[in-house]
Model the fold of this input.
Amino acid sequence: MLANGNVPSPRITAEVLLMHAARCDRAHLYAHSDRELTDSEWVHYGRSLKDRLEGKPTQYITGHQEFWGLDFLVNPAVLIPRPETELVVEAAVETVRRHFPPGSSVTIADVGTGSGCIAIALATELPQAHLIALDHSPEALQAARENARRLGVEARIRFERSDLLHLSSGEPLPPLRLVVSNPPYVSTKDAENVMPEVRRYEPPAAVFAGESGLEAYTRLIPQAAGLLESGGWLVLELGYDVEEGVRQLLAGGEWDEIEWRRDLAGIVRVVMARRFKHEAGGGDEHGAHAPKR
Done:
């Protein structure tokens, strides 16, 4: 059925939906392959198959997605965590461990936290870190907070509604040592080329950035420059066609030690940049300013 409906990986999808209907894991499913589904489980399974054939992502049907080895609850208010975003977590963890003394306090802002996957993964890897999870969507913040509670790191993450790095409350953020983000980067002009299940089901504000695809970066990079401590770091996920535009945004003299990382397909997926480190007493013309909007 799923194969005829052009659903990717139909066998795996069918198994995942069957496990969801039967409320069991794969080991139990194979160990009890002769077990008949109950009437209610058949109804649940049939409804799930119908939803998937209509294009609803499997993760929104089951309500779960694995990321960084952790089980996240997901719903249509949040972007489904992708494997490539683990490259952002990997880069951020490496940056903290390489550039900040062991055991030192590190304040990290995760901009556009969605399900909380980046902030929570960082909290599990960096026990010395204090996380601030930011999102414009109250529903996304609620989902992120619930995931943090389930995964045991809620006490170490502050959740705030914001427009990028500008808090909705109007309060200032503390000085930051790391800003990390998977911002929206798909151009609205490319909307018709986006997979239908993404276009129809995932939150548009987390997918589409505007006509150029650079709109979020254009605002976020100057904001980060205004809030990061001298020598602090910015780690961003990139869309496949925004590299050159982001290079220009980072070329204004506020950033150095810029590094670009590719995914397994050879696409530049992550950029890491250090807030230009001024010598002691040399002043910092940006650090004293409020972030630009």
About this structure: The CA atoms of residues 89 and 118 lie 6 Å apart.
